[in-house]
Amino acid sequence: MKFGGSGPGLDEPEINLVSLVDVVFCLIIFLVVTTSFNRHSGLKLQLPQANAPQSAQQVAKVSITIDAEGHYYVGQQQIASRDLASLRAAITRAAGSRRDLPVVLTVDARTQHQAVVTAMEALGELGFEKLSIATAPETKR
Question: What CATH number does the domain located at 56-133 have?
Answer without folding.
Answer: 3.30.420.270
